[in-house]
Structures are given as C-alpha cells and as structure tokens.
Amino acid sequence: MTAPGPAGGGPLSGRTALVTGGNQGIGLAVVQALARLGARVAVNHPTRQTRPEGPGRLPGGCFAVQADVRDSAQVSEMFARVREEFAGLDILVNNAGVFPRAPFLHLGEETWDLVLETNLKGAFLCAQQAARLMVPRGSGRIVNISSSAAFTGSPKGAHYAASKAGLIALSKSLARSLAPHGITVNTVAPGTTETAQPGLDAEGFAEKGRGIPLGRVARPAEVADAVAFLAGDASAYITGQTLGVNGGQVMAP
After folding, report:
1. Do 226 and 243 contact (CB within 8 A), yes or no?
2. Rounded to whole angstroms, what are the CA distances from 204 to 152, 191, 209?
3. Structure-model confidence comparison of residues 4 and 205, the more confident one
4. Rounded to whole angstroms, how far apart are CA atoms 192 and 219?
5. What is the pLDDT of residues 60-112, one digit of tens each?
6. Domain named Ketoreductase: which ranges (predicted)?
7. Which distant-in-sequence residues (6+ apart) come within 8 Å of 105 by Cβ?
8. What is the chain's mean pLDDT, rounded?
C-alpha cells in the first residue's frame, strides 16, 4: 500500500523518505521540508510516548513508525513497514540522536554506550537497510546528521562528539561503497541550533549566538534546508561530503 502524497507537485514529488528521530527538533523540521517539496515521509520515533501524530504535527503524505534505532530487530520491522507503505525508499535521513551531558571524569559506561549505540550504531543499521532497498533501483540519497562538536569536541560531551565524528567517517566509507550503485551519502553538521536543550531558554540561545560570526544560533528549518538540498537532484554529483550549517562557528580549512 502506498501512502497518499501531498497535494501538488514539487522537486521531490514521487520520492519517498524515512527520517529517524523525526518527531521533534531538527528531525521534525526535516520532515516538514521534505514534505513541502513533495516527498512522502515515514517519520520514525523511539517510543509510544514520542509519537508525533496530532493536529498540525505531520504534513500530508507522512506517517509515524516507532522503532528504537539501537535495536536491529526493531529497525528491520520499521523497514518492513516502509516497504509495505512505499514499496521502496529514495531518501534516508539519519537524524536520531541523544546527548545526555556528562563531564568526562563522571561519564559512565552505560551513558557512553547509550550515545554511541543511538547516534552511530543506529545510523549504521538504518543505512544498511536503506541501501538494500536503494541498490536494486540504482539510486538513492542518504544524509546523516552529525554536529560541529565532531570538530570542536565538547567538555560535557566526549561521548557525543565521538559518535558524531564517527558518523562523518561512516558517511565517507558508505559513500565509497555505494557510489557504484548511484547512491550518494553526505553529512550535515549543524552548529548550535534552537531546539529543546536542558537549561537553555531564549536568552540562553541569544547569549550563545553572540559568539557566532553570524550573530545567532541556527533555526531547525535552516538545517532542514541543507538536508533537503542533499536529498534532491541538485546534489547529484556530491557524495562523501560534510556540510556545516553553523553560521561560521566552525570554518573548514
């Protein structure tokens, strides 16, 4: 069965996408951006309590699918649902991630494992399943959401920075492996973004923005626009790259 798409056309009309962690923040903005461009989107969320459906939450042509991306069995079930609804997959956005802050000297093994398994292993599991759907078609787009912390480190996020740096290396390896099959793999690395974060209100984000060359933190929709670019035809000759969306917070050499 194929989910109904949004009314009208668009540059992604007829394309299908899966966004992990699409129930909030950057992930939800990505869902909205892809749907606005005409794609039909499967929106992953981790638990029954995080289900994003509701008035105004999901655009037309989208449906929610629950899975903990750390769990290979749940990931397989999620992709079975995607195959049932879409018959194939054109775009995967690996956005699911966690960041429980912890100073390095007090960072426990359990927290380390949670972050690496969600942010890095989850992306691997989903990318592998997605690639198996894309290879027979000879085309596809995989976009992984990293972070500027992959380049700068984080005093309360050694686990997070390590997972996001690993995601960049994974993306390059997948880009080389999947290029012969017409599949591109790229990474978007946001800087500080205005999403729900412990202890940060509007004034806190404003303060953080003062230290960024463009004078403010990113909006989720601005990160989503970069993802949409890498998911579309305009990026057909781009693969294995990392696109920083950080207002100049981190500048490539």
Report:
1. yes
2. 20, 15, 9
3. 205
4. 9
5. 889 999 999 999 999 999 999 999 999 999 999 999 999 999 999 999 999 99
6. 15-208
7. none
8. 92
Is 160 one of the annotated active-site residues of the chain? Answer: yes
The rounded distance, in Å, linking the Cα atoms of 122 and 116 is 8
Which of the following is catalytic: 79, 124, 151, 160? 160
Pairing of strands 62-66, 183-190: unpaired
**By C-alpha distance, which of 83, 90, 77 is closest to 2?**
83
Sign of CA dihedral 21, 25, 26, 27: positive
What crossing angle do the helices spanning 25-36 and 220-231 adopt, rounded to 10°? 50
pLDDT digits (tens, 9 = 90+) for 5-29: 444 579 999 999 999 999 999 999 9
Query: What CA–CA distance (Å, rounded) separates 86 from 14?
Result: 10
Yes or no: say if 107 and 150 are a contact pair by the CB < 8 Å rule: no
